Amino acid sequence: MKLALIGVGQAGGKVVEALCEYEAKAGVDFVVDAMAVNTARADLAGLDRIPESRRVLIGQARVKGHGVGADNELGAEVAAEDADEVLSVVDQFRTHEVDAFLVVAGLGGGTGSGGAPVLARELRRLYTEPVYGLGILPGQDEGGIYTLNAARSFKTFVDEVDNLLVFDNDAWRQSGESVSGGFDRTNEELARRLGVLFSAGETNARGAVAESVVDASEIINTLAGGGVSTIGFASTAVNRPKRGLLSRLSKTADDETRDDGEAANRVSSLVRRATLGRLTLPCEVAGSERALLVLAGPPAEISRRGMERSRRWLEAETGSMEVRGGDYPMKSGHVAAVVLLAGVTDVPRVKELQRVAIEAQRDMHEKSATSSAKLQELLRSGSAEQDALEPLF
């Protein structure tokens, strides 16, 4: 699947960088073009793989290149004001090659949480290709303002994209890890999952041919219908002893059956781990509206029997009949399974964000009423004191 990547804010730009890095290292080709949008000049300067012509500084008239200070309302305002500047760069993309746009943002900061939904809305207005979002939720220990921003931005982002893929930092944080090191690691983990998923249907230089191709239409149909999606991933090393010529010639039907049974069991185990293990957004698998399974690795290690068995298992686990699947042959010492669960509904983290948003809205109304009452009391007190003053003349 060919993507146009747009990173909004610091976290969005970093994830787009990680995706470009994965594409270069893996020798795959799924990124048509990539750009970064920010209100902070320093954040844009820290990017390496995105060329300067694809780095757009917005809000200069308002914030002078210093960022919006975690104010997502201001982030939305400057994105709306400077949307034409962003779209003029998108016009330079080879959009005739693009299957979909992916707008990436951290939902805790100001520029990403405020600006990403605005830019997604503009892209959907101008282009017929799907516009997907990738939202990164802040850790709960990052501070109340970031959680509040995420709570405010989440529903807006869901409404403005064709589907929102979500990554929850809380589910991936490791104790004792530095902040920068933690973000670098999680960005790499996220890029690997997305990289395998979106590059699966693209032709690679090695000339390997899939038995069941996962093309752009499979991914688009899985993400159709909107809502929230999550991604699971699992991999295992394959250590197959090299066979000599005599061994290969004398191989029996029992050997082939044993090998296929071993590969099928490996595939089934991988798919279960990917689905029930650490998802990018932890959720209840049951109730997912649609699912997509991608198996990647050496063709000899991807068992068709294991694939069919795993698809039936996914149908039973999700309760959905819309479970698609395919293989992605590649030269590797590992076999990997990627599971995309679309239209998930039972998500504890999202329910927590909704609770925070409701409480924050109630608190703001109460504080506003209290402040107004205190102001009126102050004005009345000042007026009474003025009236009590005796004239000097």
Q: Measured on Cα atoms, how large is the radius of gyration?
A: 25 Å
User: Which range does the strand content fall in?
Assistant: 15-25%
Task: Briefly note the structural class of the backbone.
Answer: alpha/beta
Label the CATH architecture of the largest domain: 3-Layer(aba) Sandwich
Widest sheet: strand order?
3-2-1-4-5-6-7-10-8-9
CATH topology of the largest domain: Rossmann fold
Q: Largest sheet, described in full?
A: 10 strands, mixed
- What is the chain-wise order of helices and strands? EHEHEHHHEHEHEHHEHHEHEEH
For this structure, what is the CATH homologous superfamily of the largest domain?
Tubulin/FtsZ, GTPase domain
Helical coverage, percent range: 40-55%
Alpha plus pi helix count: 13
- What does the average pLDDT come to? 87
Subcellular location: Cytoplasm
Function: Involved in cell shape control.
Binding site for GTP: 10-14, 110-112, 142, 169, 187
Domain Tubulin/FtsZ GTPase: 2-205
Structure description:
- The chain has 393 residues and is of the alpha/beta class.
- It folds into 2 domains: 3-199, Tubulin/FtsZ, GTPase domain (Rossmann fold, 3-Layer(aba) Sandwich); 227-342, 60s Ribosomal Protein L30, Chain: A (2-Layer Sandwich), CATH 3.30.1330.
- The protein contains 13 helices and 10 strands.
- The protein has helices at residues 9-26, 41-45, 60-63, 72-81, 83-90, 111-126, 144-160, 179-199, 216-223, 245-249, 253-276, 304-318, 348-388; strands at 3-8, 31-38, 55-57, 100-106, 131-137, 163-168, 228-237, 290-297, 323-329, 334-342.
